[in-house]
Specification:
8-stranded parallel barrel; AKR_Detox_Biosynth; alpha/beta; TIM Barrel; NADP_OxRdtase_dom; NADP-dependent oxidoreductase domain-containing protein; oxidoreductase activity; 11 helices; 329 residues; globular
């Protein structure tokens, strides 16, 4: 299964999502990732208020595929950069991509994503400029992220009608405890020949063994900090009793079979989910330390899980499914 290195945690301090604040450490993490045979690095204009791209631009990334995204921060002020805001208008798309390329110090990227829908701009206007930028050689493949299934279908229809570049990959939330993409989005992507890259494979840390329902409330600056925009979003998505009820089912079974929760989570995605290696699907893994990254990379080598573990994950999902968050923005 393709594994994509997510660089959201890399960047200058001051943004609650960044954890890796030195270029040298980030380079070591990418080298470790590459040593396991992988070559795709994913970032976004909004990550670290632009500093994630700037860090990557200072690194040796000649042998990797570099992907980035443009979030329509102007329509979501809580997620906006401290210095820039973008719509998905033609002018802002061009400005955003040029600023990404400048920060990354590259003439083009492998995949450029529309990071989230901008419903204040007609899709046809957005896609017209996206196609121009593609024809000018600034990116190789178009990606989309956080769109509803009907929006994906609409985008593909517009691109087909005009002969424009179509999305070839879509990013979305997917893990053993969050399967909202299965009923509609994945079917839509299969119909249109679009690969799926899942993020949050460890349910934002819930499936790491590090959290329990009786822990003290989230610390300032932490993953579930309700004060920060990212922490508040993650908290609303995952920090609920039903998730801990599901963990109560999984933990004794995983222990019985000598598996960590990370091995269960990544083993499920690799061997028991609806991801398909032959369709070029992938898993986005982000880490805040070299040790975490190595743990995740090793866990990706987990083979098919014992049926008892799969059953425990499925039982947990049945508890959660009525309370799951939406998969789109």
């Amino acid at each position: 299964m393709k594994l994509i290195f997510g660089a959201m945690n890399i960047g200058e301090p001051g943004d609650g999502r960044t954890r890796v604040h030195r270029v040298e450490k980030a380079q070591q993490m990418v080298e470790l990732y590459k040593s396991y045979g992988h070559k795709d690095v994913d970032t976004a204009r909004i990550y670290g208020n632009g500093s994630s791209e700037e860090f990557l631009g200072k690194m040796n990334l000649e042998s990797v595929n570099l992907d980035t995204k443009l979030f329509p921060s102007a329509v979501n002020p809580a997620m906006a950069s401290a210095t820039t805001a973008y719509h998905h208008t033609p002018s802002d798309l061009r400005r955003g991509l040029m600023e990404s390329l400048e920060a990354l110090r590259v003439p083009k990227v492998h995949v450029w994503y529309l990071h989230s829908p901008d419903r204040t701009v007609p899709f046809i206007d957005t896609l017209w400029e996206v196609n121009k930028l593609h024809e000018e050689g600034y990116f190789e493949k178009l990606g989309i992220s956080n769109y509803q299934s009907w929006e994906v279908a609409t985008i593909c229809d517009i691109c087909d009608q005009h002969g424009w570049v179509k999305p070839s990959v879509c990013q979305g939330i997917y893990n053993a405890f969050h399967r909202a993409v299965e009923p509609e989005l994945l079917r839509c992507l299969r119909h249109h020949g679009i690969a799926f890259y899942c993020f949050n494979p460890l349910a934002a840390g819930i499936l790491t063994g590090r959290y329990s329902r009786h822990q003290p409330d989230a610390v300032a600056g932490g993953r579930f900090d309700p004060v920060s925009s990212s922490g508040s979003l993650t908290r609303r998505r995952y920090y609920h009793d039903v998730y801990f009820d599901a963990l109560d089912i999984l933990r004794p079974v995983a222990k019985k079979h000598g598996l960590t929760e990370i091995e269960c989570a990544l083993g499920w995605l690799s061997h028991h989910s609806q991801l398909k290696d032959e369709l070029e699907d992938g898993i986005v893994i982000g880490s805040s330390s070299i040790e975490q990254l190595e743990e995740n990379l090793r866990a990706m080598k987990t083979g098919p899980l014992p049926q008892e573990v799969v059953d425990a994950l499925n039982k947990g999902w049945e508890i959660i499914r009525g309370n799951q968050s939406i998969y789109w923005h």
